[in-house]
Design a protein that fits this description.
Blueprint: E1 14-18, E2 26-31, E3 37-44, E4 51-59, E5 65-67, E6 77-82, E7 88-93, E8 97-98, E9 106-107, E10 116-121, E11 132-133, E12 143-148, E13 154-159, E14 169-174, E15 185-186, E16 196-201, E17 207-211, E18 219-223, E19 225-226, E20 229-230, E21 234-235, E22 246-251, E23 256-261, E24 268-274, E25 281-287, E26 292-298, H1 301-311, E27 317-318, H2 331-343, E28 348-353, H3 361-381, E29 390-394, H4 414-420, E30 422-423, E31 426-429
Parallel strand pairs: 28-29
Antiparallel strand pairs: 1-24, 2-3, 3-4, 4-5, 6-7, 7-10, 8-9, 10-11, 12-13, 13-14, 14-15, 16-17, 17-18, 18-21, 19-20, 22-23, 23-24, 25-26, 27-30, 28-31
Length: about 425
Amino acid sequence: MSVSSIISSQEKTYTLTQINIGNDGVWGAIPLANEQIIFVENMQNAGSNNVSDSKLFVLDRNNNKSELPAFGEYKKTGSPFISPDGTEFYFTVSGTAASISKGGWLHRDVQMYPLQILISKKGENGEWQEPVPFQHNGNNFSNGDPCLSHDGMYLYFASDREGGVGGTDIYRSRRDSDGSWDEPQNLGAINTRGNERFPRFDAKGNLYFSSTANTGSLDLFMLPLNGGSFAKPVRMDFPFNSQGDDFAISFIDEDKGYLSSNRNGADNIYFFELEKPEIRYETIKIYDTVKTVEKPLPVHPDLILADMLKSGKMKYIYFDFNKYDIRDKEITALTELLIFMRQYPTVVLELPSYADCHGSDLYNIRLSGNRGEAVKNYLVTLGKIDANRITVKEYGSANPVNECGDCANPECNEAKFEANRRVEYKVVKY
């Protein structure tokens, strides 16, 4: 089947927070004990934008980063995975390969071959031992993105070996009683003519992976476990998927985990967590001739929205000059708006939409309307919000937020013009 035909059915609301590691080009986080993660960081040559190496690092709960010393000899490492019992470490290497003199071992500074999977076991002293290559690596194709099933019996991975459906497909290999691995089997049903990568499991045994089949970018899909076998893949909702690449999801438990995405222009790691419903109350006093009582009164959504905007938790959406496409840096604000609409499913929003002072009145009316429609379409398409809950009101260059309603004002600059190119939010019904 083609995953491009699948629509999302996610009903829960999640929050997404970027992990502050200090650098961009970080991805592939897997959780450890004590709120630590292992992740990949792309390293750049000095004075160059080209990525030369990639290394494995550990980030502790206090945001202290240190290189994983056990595998520091490899120049290009990626896609780490630790077995559920914590005794095996799997990862991908690039730019190194087996040589005859090394007897099939992978070491640095030898002939270049494709991606290959390495496996290290934890010794009695608790240290990781010298990695050995997965026995079904090859010199004319790549293996990568390793992941074990919960019972440790199957190794899932991505490969572009001959006989696949598309560019890279997901395969699995069964572990025999002697520790060897059976010939890899293509999973077939989930693979497309695009690229499928980064297989991972959640706590319930559902399989997750990323695919380029839908949009050309990597999108996250879930393959639900149904009675011991997998059902049809389901494309995940926003905020898991964005307009960029979204991949390498991993789980701490049923409600939270990590994913990687370049939605803000560079690879970064994001923490996701199931949003717990939160009911906010105001307390009002009702007096009578006998006694004083207090009753909780729910705060109305319009007051909550105003409070969130005033505090800076939510922000309006802004646009580039003469454009109405959604910028990557507006995704965080849209995420907060989406969370708000899911928390209050009866709310109907109006989107007052504006342009700056440049251009004719008629042109600016149309441009501001297109900006409002872009925000609405984003929420409806990616957020699965009912289109009837959102109306757009185009105001052109009216109601500027500063003195730059007149473009001839010498006090105006680009930042002030941008402040007027906006889409606002207004609760009109709940």
